[in-house]
Amino acid sequence: MTDLHETATNNTVAMSIAAPSYEIRAERGSDVAARESLLDVCFGASRHARTCQRLRDGRLPAEGLAFSAVVQGRLVGTIRLWHVDAGGRAALMLGPLAVDPGARDLGLGAALMNHAIAEASARGHGAIVLLGDAPYYARFGFTADRMATLALPGPFERDRLLGLELKPGALDRARGIVLASGKRVRRGAAEFQPLADVA
């Protein structure tokens, strides 16, 4: 569990913030309904029509790379990564990242990003791509470098296509359309197939 606290800089004692602590953990099957409600709140009903959603439709998130942020037993944040072919190079697509509006002052967006990037790196993945605001994602190392030769399978804003190499050269010679390459949801399974519950 991650506890929020503030350390005084003048050699006085550390002061606790009157904010709830949060936990970032692997997504569970029991998170599905709350995650979908959170995504509706954050992105609206049109989220299912977005270009990046086409890369997720009918696919499972990359193994071990779907996370939930929980405060006092309530899901308040989500992040998932998905396998893609980024113009001939294996990569992950990050998204969506969502944090409950009432919990945004806890730093959960940054905590989820850092957790997901660290776990993707630990699992040996070479690169992550995403569609998002460059000023926000730059602090995690995402840039538009090497993205000029890549495109998404639908409308997108060129300056929002960003990448992060976890291994040097992972996006070398990446050219073309970013395509979904992850495991498919089993035929007849629910669209939002829950992950196994973890005790």
Account of the protein in words:
- 32% of the residues are buried.
- Strands 1, 2, 3, 4, 5, 6, 7, 8 and 9 form a nine-stranded mixed sheet that branches.
- A hairpin with a 3-residue loop joins strand 3 (74-86) and strand 4.
- The two termini are 15 Å apart.
- This protein has a single domain, classed as Gcn5-related N-acetyltransferase (GNAT) (Aminopeptidase).
- It is built from four helices and nine strands; from the N terminus they run βααββββαβαβββ.
- The chain has helices spanning 32-43, 51-56, 108-122, 134-137, and strands spanning 23-26, 66-71, 74-86, 90-94, 98-99, 127-131, 150-151, 161-165, 176-180.
- The longest helix has 15 residues, at 108-122.
- It has 199 residues and is of the alpha+beta class.
The sequence of SSEs as H and E is: EHHEEEEHEHEEE
Q: Structural class of the helix and strand makeup?
A: alpha+beta
Assess the beta-strand content as a share of residues: 15-25%
- Examine the coordinates and then state which fold CATH places here, giving the name of the CATH topology: Aminopeptidase
Number of domains: 1
Largest pleated sheet: 9 strands, mixed
Helix proportion range:
10-25%
Q: Could you report the average pLDDT, rounded to the nearest whole number?
A: 86
Quaternary structure: single chain
Low-confidence stretches: 1-18, 190-199
Tell me the Rg in angstroms: 18 Å
The rough form would be described as: globular
- DSSP helical segment count: 4
CATH architecture: 3-Layer(aba) Sandwich
The tally of strands reads: 9
